[in-house]
Write a structure and sequence with these properties.
By secondary structure, the chain is of the alpha/beta class. It has six helices and four strands; from the N terminus they run βαβαβααβαα. The protein folds into two domains: 2-105, 3-Layer(aba) Sandwich (Rossmann fold); 109-158. 65% of the residues lie in helices and 11% in strands.
Length: 162
């Protein structure tokens, strides 16, 4: 969903064009207070902020931006920008957001994978060493084999081989 923040009389036409171009529903906030209320109630992919509202009350704009969550802000001037330019800017911002999200997810996955490698390797080595104890009761051996199997499964799931 996209939030269009503007008091422009072209707001509804712009919202309709954005919906048609992006297949995303658009909500319109006529002022920054209404935008803050909508941001608290819903999650948005992007905020299209009319620069005239931003310039009129920069402090209120900053307070609104505290509630944007993962939304990408796009600043436009509806008084001088055509709908085509708004859509072009919005598409660029959404594409950038998608790319940045993918890169962040891949980074987080790699970091988690790297952190788990050492733990899984230590777990497998500990199981292997414990299973070499000759006087180990059979019930303990069975439990260690279960732990070892789970560690092997975890190793395979996170995609590395110790």
């Amino acid at each position: 969903m996209i939030l269009l923040i503007t008091s422009s009389p072209k707001a509804q036409d712009c919202a309709n064009a954005i919906t048609q171009a992006t297949s995303e529903p658009v909500k319109i906030a006529c002022n920054l207070g209404q935008a803050a209320t909508l941001l608290k109630a819903d999650e948005f992919a992007a905020l299209v902020v009319d620069q005239q509202l931003q310039d009129a009350d920069p402090d209120e704009t900053d307070r609104v931006l505290l509630h944007i969550g993962m939304a990408t802000p796009v600043y436009i001037n509806l008084a001088i920008s055509g709908v085509e330019r708004v859509i072009r800017e919005l598409r660029t911002a959404l594409h950038r957001r998608k790319r940045e999200t993918l890169i962040a997810r891949q980074g987080a996955e790699q970091k988690l994978r790297n952190e788990l490698k050492g733990t899984v390797t230590a777990l497998l080595l500990s199981c292997e060493m414990a299973l070499q104890v000759p006087t180990l009761p059979s019930t303990v051996t069975a439990k260690l084999r279960m732990v070892e199997a789970l560690a092997h499964e975890m190793r395979d799931r996170i995609g590395f081989h110790a």
